[in-house]
Specification:
This protein is mostly helical. It folds into 3 domains: 60 residues, Alpha-Beta Plaits (2-Layer Sandwich), CATH 3.30.70.20; 61 residues; 33 residues, no CATH class. The protein contains 6 helices and 2 strands; from the N terminus they run E-H-H-E-H-H-H-H. Strands 1-2 form a two-stranded antiparallel ribbon. The longest helix is centred in the middle third of the chain and has 27 residues. The chain is elongated and about 70 Å long. The chain binds iron/sulfur cluster (2 copies).
Length: 155
């Protein structure tokens, strides 16, 4: 582990500088030298009155890959939530009296579907960022990329 500083919280009172045995913290630049940090001894963390310093892991485990059965089940659940969202959307349009409930259901189904997509390891093609990127790619001169982007936008 090693120490890291949230510069927005730092009041530059230099307590971390006084307690650090290796001089790893630099309050002038706001940096903590990872190479000097003694495996996150945490003296600076405990000394900081602003809670500006925290420890971070040196290595993180590789993200676990979902097996095919689980990914398939998540995608099945996603499709069913998407269908339910569509039902709730049309219910909201057709029943003005129950619009609030139907809209809440619609949103809730969307959130569940997005969770399934994320857990299944897929990006959300309907997100604003993805849509903006695809729209931009649909204008490029490369015919192949353009066609692919248009296809994805249609889907
Ligand atoms: S002890 Fe905390 S508040 Fe003080 S200089 Fe260090 S990081 Fe900033
Ligand atoms: S964790 Fe220890 S060695 Fe690392 S910067 Fe803080 S006081 Fe220094």
């Amino acid at each position: 582990m090693y120490a890291s500083r949230n510069i927005d919280l730092c009041t530059k009172d230099c307590l971390c500088l006084f307690v650090c045995p290796t001089g790893a913290t630099d309050t002038e630049t706001g940096q903590i030298d990872k190479n000097l940090c003694l495996d996150g001894c945490r003296l600076c963390v405990d000394a900081c009155p602003s809670h500006a310093i925290y420890l971070v892991m040196s290595n993180y485990a590789d993200p676990k890959h979902k097996d095919e059965t689980l990914a398939g089940a998540l995608m099945g659940l996603l499709e069913s939530k998407a269908d339910q969202e569509a039902v709730a959307r049309s219910a909201a349009a057709e029943n003005p009296g129950a619009q609030k409930l139907a809209r809440a259901l619609q949103k809730s189904m969307r959130i569940l579907a997005e969770d399934c997509a994320r857990e299944g390891g897929f990006m959300l093609p309907q997100s604003a960022a993805s849509q903006a990127l695809l729209a931009e790619l649909a204008q490029t001169e490369d015919q192949q990329i353009q066609e692919l982007a248009v296809k994805l936008l249609e889907k």
